[in-house]
Design goal:
Elements: H1 11-22, H2 32-41, H3 46-58, E1 62-67, E2 70-75, H4 77-91, E3 102-107, H5 114-126, E4 130-133, E5 136-140, H6 144-153, E6 160-165, H7 174-180, H8 183-197, H9 200-208, H10 212-217, H11 221-238, H12 241-244, H13 259-286
Antiparallel strand pairs: 1-2, 3-5, 3-6, 4-5
Helix pairs in contact: 1-11, 2-3, 8-13, 9-13, 11-13
């Protein structure tokens, strides 16, 4: 059996990843029995899976339905919107350039609604904004529309004013960026990921070759299951980074910034292992191998 790294992820996070990949289209509700099989492949027992599903239902992430006489769960519409919004960031994030404009988000929340203030900070930070001053946040302007959509869906847009333009500063941007973002904390998280997965792209290329279609066509059930066991926890660990990493121009970041190495590692494994993992998932869902395009 393939040795699989074990990133620090929880049942609930893995279930959300699985739904994000395989349970988003119409009719893709999953019965608990399928989730138990999938999480069983990842080393978790049935009671823990059932408990996590119940918690996700209570949080409004999953909703229960009955289809064809079988009790199933599907993603709530709010969470579906977050997944649709996040696909570009997670699978094909774009790095800003020094020529790009900046966007400032300036917010003011009444004292009687201070909980919304905390929520705004969390949302902006989670979308890659840095903090310039109290109530003033900055990010590359290319994410402006995504931010508007997110804050609108959260009922927070009325507290925020946006300004877009250039930063008129003649000195180096590195020290400014380091003051606005906690680059050290982000880079430490990158280092933890690389400790687990450095060289993973080369490993998978050596295991299945460099052609995803050929690898899928020639794969065995065991290889597809191993790809699932490897890819799902890796994606779960990775999908937080495109939000925490603001994708700033490399010219503004430390020379030893690990972001590009982390992204290259994930994308290499994603290209080769994701189609194999998806084929295994579809076999569990439908009871037979379903062809999956890379």
């Amino acid at each position: 059996m393939l040795a699989v790294p074990a990133p620090p992820v929880r049942h609930q996070q893995l279930i959300v990843t699985i739904y994000g990949l395989y349970g988003r289209s119409s009719g893709d509700a999953l019965p608990v029995s399928v989730l138990i099989s999938m999480l069983g492949d990842l080393g978790y027992d049935a009671p823990g899976v059932r408990s996590s599903v119940s918690r996700l239902k209570a949080k409004g992430v999953l909703k229960s339905i009955r289809r064809d006489g079988v009790a199933k769960y599907e993603l709530s519409e709010t969470v579906l919107d977050v997944f649709r919004e996040g696909d570009q960031r997670i699978f094909a994030p774009e790095r800003a350039t020094p020529l790009d404009a900046w966007v400032l988000a300036v917010f003011s929340v009444p004292e009687s609604m201070r909980n919304r203030r905390h929520q705004l900070r969390s949302e902006l930070s989670g979308l890659g904004f840095g903090s310039v001053a109290s109530g003033v946040w900055i990010a590359p302007a290319r994410i402006l529309e995504q931010v508007r959509e997110r804050l609108t869906s959260r009922g927070l847009i009325q507290f925020v004013d946006f300004f877009q333009g250039d930063y008129l500063f003649d000195g180096p941007m590195g020290p400014k960026v380091a003051a606005w973002w906690d680059l050290k904390a982000i880079d430490e998280q990158f280092a933890e990921f690389l400790d687990l997965y450095e060289g993973a792209g080369e490993f998978w290329a050596g295991l299945v070759g460099d052609d995803p279609e050929a690898a899928l066509a020639e794969s065995t059930a065991e290889l597809r299951r191993d790809a699932f066991r490897y890819y799902i926890p890796m994606l779960t660990a990775w999908r937080r980074f495109p939000y925490r990493d603001p994708n700033l121009p490399l010219e503004y970041l430390p020379e030893d910034w690990k972001g590009p190495a982390v992204r290259k590692t994930f994308q290499a494994v994603h290209r080769l292992a994701a189609p194999l993992a998806a084929a295994h998932a579809q076999e569990l869902i439908h009871g037979s191998v379903v062809p999956v395009a890379p």
